[in-house]
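Quick one, T. Sequence first:
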Amino acid sequence: MKLQGKTALVTGSAQGIGQAIAIRLAQEGADIIVDDRALGQSAQETADAITALGRRVHMIQGDLANTEDDRRVIAEGVEKMGKIDILVNNAGVEKHADFWDVTEKDFDFVLQINLRGTFFITQDFVNHLRATNRPGRVINISSVHEELPFPHFSTYCASKGALKMLCRDLAVELGPLGITVNNIAPGAIATPINTALLNNPQLLALLESKIPLGRLGKPEDVSGLAAFLASDDASYVTGATFVVDGGLLHNYHEQ
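Structure tokens:
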């Protein structure tokens, strides 16, 4: 188990990719802090799966759009678990709208969670590492849309494009502290955020025809890469984006 003795905080880990990452890191030996905006049944299922693996787990309710929540999540996680070694910034949202119809409310909602929240919870995590003089890992769940245009999702693309540069910048600034920063950019993954797509056979078939591997990804396709980036095997990897999309990015076309 490559993460024995480590503690990981995974934001948005009640379901989907975040849930899969939390469980995979636990399989590798890490204790886990499960964070989500709402700690319902799915969050409990994540925690139960981690406990069944013999790992310690603590659940925290936190809204990344709230800077005070960001600070509290880090502080409570450290208080309950003793330390945090790995931060997985997975929580994210999107809003569908024509550009000319995007409201300030929707713009703020997407950017506050996908970018602002990620920025400040990472800052609090880094300050924890600095205070304890330890190295660490930051793994951001970005998107192929940090590169690939996605019409009618301008706020989402803006947030993920900014996350790409933030990753690169922090990799340089935090490298001397022994902190690595990397992005994972999933393509089309079968998660709750894609429920409408999964329930539309025609649209699903059209999308799958654009993916060279011929299928949507699974959360587990992402979680294995996160486990690698969290481990010592990736100790010399920083400032990079790893695309997990079945080849979609290089084969995408509108028609």
